């Protein structure tokens, strides 16, 4: 005698239409849907970051090649690496996945660290030579603090009292990372409205679309 549990029932019966008509519903997958939602969120955030950075690089590749041009080029790299640095650590469940994700996170954030230093040095030099003000100091300082603190937690836990304390402090590093990413995009959006950028690319909707895609993608993966 065959048990009537759903585990033993065929996925598709001999009379599918009759079964659907009787029960009035169609079974839907659970596990795969959760995985797909995480992947779709990843695609949203990735496309947004690539759209933002790619547009900046499109502008700089078609603009006059001067010393200043390296500032937006490096800032776009900073934005892109910071975004993927967060994405790569989201939804990592197994220890092996966490270790791989952490290694990629370190790589992305290392590139972010050096890119922001180089890009900020270039803009400060340019602004000082032309007697202009610059408004990105807050974001620059935050990135340096965030990457330094993260490096200490991952590589030198003894500084904060040992590995167990470093693990407990990680949640603060994660939350501040989300805040920092939002600050990076706000600062970048401000840069898109600078006179130089508007002269070369006056399409605000592109920047807003890219930012919204990143926001939706990051938020989606925190729940996936």
UniProtKB/TrEMBL annotation:
Keywords: Electron transport, Heme, Iron, Membrane, Metal-binding, Transmembrane, Transmembrane helix, Transport. One of its GO terms (cellular component) is membrane. It is a multi-pass membrane protein. The chain crosses the membrane at residues 37-60, 67-87, 107-126, 175-192, 204-220. It is found in: Membrane. Its main location: membrane. One of its GO terms (molecular function) is metal ion binding. InterPro entries: CYB561D1/2 (IPR045150), Cyt_b561/ferric_Rdtase_TM (IPR006593). Residues 70-192 form the Cytochrome b561 domain. It comes from the Eukaryota. Its cofactor is heme b. This is 10451_t:CDS:1. It comes from Cetraspora pellucida.
